[in-house]
Amino acid sequence: MKKILFLLAMLPSMLLLPSLVSAAPAVLERFLADTQAYQADFLQRTVDESGEVTAISSGQMSLKRGQNNQPGSGQFRWQYQEPWEQIIVGDGETLWQYDADLEQATKRPMQESLAGTPAELLVGGLLLDDWLISEDDVWLTLKPKDNDLPFQSIALRFEGELLAGMKLVDQFDQTTHVVFDRINTEAEFAAETFVFVPPEGTEIIGGEDDF
Predict the structure, then answer these.
(1) Are 183 and 40 in contact (CB under 8 A)?
(2) Is residue 13 part of a domain?
(3) Each residue of 1-19: pLDDT tens digit?
(4) How many CB atoms lie within 10 A of CB 87?
(5) What's the structural domain count of the chain?
(6) What is the domain range of residue 191?
(7) Which of 136, 135, 117 is nearest to 127 (CA)?
């Protein structure tokens, strides 16, 4: 399956010196406490350590956050439309990743798969006590205290109370940026939004032994 570049952020901004904060900034606390639904278009691009753009993609995302930030209670759909069709769906129990070109779907336990990732921050369940938080005039940056995670930092950009962008730096100094547009925090989702049914003929990787 083509590598699915999963969650990221806005285009690079001016260099600003971040300052450590002793507690989560109020805008992040409000986002985690108050956001129940989130729907947006996204533009995603990845650059390598030299600054060369290695991938550009776009699509739509839908998110229903878990109650009280509890793990396993949130659901999401992250759908790439360009340059190829890929779908990631988490129904609260199972995480599906589907590649239309390969006619292949991967099935894994959702909570285990998202633990400590940017997706967990969006869906619900991530504990802020596990992160070092700093901020500047543009970005709110979270660095994991656990060095075993496959990335160095997650950065968030808010416009007012809206999460407008994210940025993920991995352990190979690749940076993935995502900018969100047409944001709707009052979306009402159809029941099938967070359900994935593999098309007929799809090869399924993973199964009951993974749960």
Answers:
(1) yes
(2) no
(3) 434 434 433 323 222 334 4
(4) 18
(5) 1
(6) 24-197+203-207
(7) 117
